[in-house]
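Appendix B, record 7
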Amino acid sequence: MSAAELPRDWNPPTLDDVRAAAQRIEGRVHKTPVMSCADINSMTGSELIFKCENLQRIGAFKARGAMNAVWSLDEEEAARGVATHSSGNHGAALALAARSRDMASWVVVPDNAAAVKRESVRREGAAVVDCAPGMNNREAALARVVEETGAIVVHPYDDDRVIAGQGTAALELLNSCQDLSMILAPVGGGGLISGTAIAAKGLNPSIKVIACEPAAADDARRSFEQGQRLSMDAPDTIADGLRASLGRRNFRIICDLVDDVVTVSETGIMAATRLVWERMRIVIEPSAAVPVAALLEEQVPGSSGVRIGVILTGGNVDLDALRWS
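Structure tokens (predicted):
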């Protein structure tokens, strides 16, 4: 598949769209703190500035995109409710956003999703629809939900409103730390890295934007290198939030604005997760640790001795499934 699937007249969101999203969601999401860690700086040889989206509402950056999408709907659309598929964080975020407008929501969740994320979706008020793992199964189940309910689909990442909303994390980070040379974020479906690249390049065209993903789910790296959108239906990685394949819009934006896509090992992800827990005393999920792993495994050229922004994407951990114990 290629980015040519997009309509010819499609234009990606801009910095102005990200700024508009920031105004729309103000007061509805947290302005998350920025932190640093001398120990991790010493280990990576860089000065790292962490944007702590693990402390965001529902425990992940996904609250930003979902809230922007839901509050962008007109009243007629809102009356229909919203639906999506999600391994957890986007589903919980969409349920939260829908509840903030007294809307119904339905979330298709694969049966291998982390229990803590599934429970979060339910707790925020969505109707959970189970499906087998894999993107094909998720999309088929979502199509059935939409046919039965008439709900508006808010895609987890291949949605302009979601992309603009996710970009507000980088906007906040760069407005508070304007001298960053590089910004790193994980990539799964591509919503966060797309929004990050739009915000970062819009504010500072010379900043390097690096997407980081598990080697076990490396469709973004392969797509980036080959110039065509490739997919993996059900990759096996501890970084459960990064199992999705790149969206059409996201691939186009990545090709245009992202400087590099790097991959890391499963052992590296586990080690980086544990390191952040131990040295920073904050809880992150494995997906959030992927950029830290990329730096520890020396996968990011030019990172030594520079100031780097790192988006810690979420903190929803299934404590019963920890692999390092």
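Remarks on this record: The longest strand covers residues 208-214. The chain has two domains: 3-59+159-321, 63-153.
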